[in-house]
Amino acid sequence: MKYIPSTRQRFVSTKYISTRGHDARPEFCDILLGGLAPDGGLYLPESCPRIGRAELDAWRGLSYAGLAFEILSRFIGDIPAADLREICARTYTADVYRHVRASDDPAQITPLRWLEPGKLGLLALSNGPTLAFKDMAMQLLGNLFEYVLEKRGETINILGATSGDTGSAAEYAMRGKARVKVFMLSPHGKMSAFQRAQMYSLADANIFNIAVTGMFDEAQDIVKAVSNDARFKARHRIGAVNSINWARVAAQVVYYFKGYFAATASNDEQVAFCVPSGNFGNICAGHIARRMGLPVARLILATNENDVLDEFFRTGVYRPRRAAETRVTSSPSMDISKASNFERFVYDLVGRDPEKVAGLWAEIDAGRAFDLSRTPYFAHLPEFFGFISGSSTHADRLATIRDVHERHDIIIDPHTADGVKVARQHAGGLPSGVPLLVLETAQPAKFADTIREALGKNPEIPAGLRELETLPQRVDVMAPDVETVKAYIAARA
């Protein structure tokens, strides 16, 4: 039976709730522009849509854009279906995601490359304009922002923080958009030269780069502090593109479904994913996909030396580190010790109890840890939620990059190497016959120093980006101070 995509509006009254229990129940377009909830919580759908066998059967042959429409329409009730379909079709094209390897099919958008056929594969997510998986969601976010702001006749000032890839992905998605200005904070001197060049070389008048003399967590704390200042936020129309924005997570759900279809022959099979993660946004999307009904056997979280999340999944203790304790590593996009999206998962873990979540994060805000190891929630992590975890070191990254190159003639970036190392560590514990996909984080061109250390040669830089590091750069350096950043925004908003 031929599948005919639906054009009707699916959920005309889809509402969103805060993880901390705020009374308002806004719709998608409101939370798209708003960022954090008024009580400091993160937005989630009031209920998670369930996908059955019929949908899985029907979706298996769809294009990436078609699949994106079907999934996103389950979360978006206030954009007409025809308009949402057009936005997805305009976003997910081979022209936008054009930086494919010679052996990949550009029409796939996220091609699957097997390291061990049927057993271990790489889901290529970094073919977009900034060579990082963040483009998969951010390009959609840019088009959604443009659509909603135009319909409402409004403008917005986006404030974000980046540990490496979010910043450039956001800026490339929003550059030149008439109703949007972007203020992006990054840790001064902590990103790779290529990452800095991608952001700081943009000359668009609506892009403002701020390098704070501290760690990413301090930059992220500033974003949250500004977002929690209701008066300043309203006066200057502050919005968010970090993974606290639900639209980012929803867009990332799509490639879990696409990866599942690519790795399996039928919907009777299961799949496992290994996800390099620092801020918990990427793997949170996998958690949502699993809750929707995608047959995911395991979600394997991989960290670097900043192993706050691995520590939680091993011990039940969530203990964010101070900035001074956060290590600078060769997988810098994961040099994070406060995972902003983790609150969404904990909300589900504690039975969707907003008072419990608010209490736990009050402990975190006071500089203390919390411990769920003696609760029923933690005891059922693998069975109920599918989560296991592992960590990787600089030596592990170098060894993994060398091994993958020698055995498969593929060069992977250091974050993906963290994922491959942890995936191999856990592969033997998976049910027989379940393929394991590592979500590729970025292309190796973004981390030339580490690739040279591992392989003794430079990674190939895609055409059109080879002169990037020679371009003039524009950035303002300042202390990680909330009031200083507010004054900077107020003078330019």
Radius of gyration, CA atoms, in whole angstroms: 21 Å
Low-confidence stretches: 1-13
What name is given to the CATH topology of the domain at 111-128 and 249-455?
Rossmann fold
- The mean pLDDT is 93
CATH class of the domain at 111-128 and 249-455: Alpha Beta
Strand residue content: 5-15%
**Helix amount, in percent?**
40-55%
- Number of DSSP strands? 15
Walk me through this protein's architecture.
The protein is of the alpha/beta class. It has helices at residues 28-34, 53-59, 64-72, 81-91, 134-152, 166-174, 193-200, 216-227, 230-235, 246-263, 281-292, 308-315, 342-349, 354-365, 376-379, 381-385, 394-408, 414-427, 448-455, 482-492; strands spanning 16-18, 43-45, 112-116, 120-123, 156-161, 180-187, 207-212, 238-239, 271-276, 296-303, 317-318, 370-371, 387-391, 436-439, 476-478. α3 (64-72) packs antiparallel against α4 and α3 crosses α10.
List the helices and strands and how they pair.
Elements: E1 16-18, H1 28-34, E2 43-45, H2 53-59, H3 64-72, H4 81-91, E3 112-116, E4 120-123, H5 134-152, E5 156-161, H6 166-174, E6 180-187, H7 193-200, E7 207-212, H8 216-227, H9 230-235, E8 238-239, H10 246-263, E9 271-276, H11 281-292, E10 296-303, H12 308-315, E11 317-318, H13 342-349, H14 354-365, E12 370-371, H15 376-379, H16 381-385, E13 387-391, H17 394-408, H18 414-427, E14 436-439, H19 448-455, E15 476-478, H20 482-492
Parallel strand pairs: 4-14, 5-6, 5-8, 6-7, 7-15, 9-10, 9-14, 10-13
Antiparallel strand pairs: 1-2, 3-4, 11-12
Helix pairs in contact: 3-4, 3-10, 4-5, 5-6, 5-10, 6-7, 10-11, 17-18, 17-19
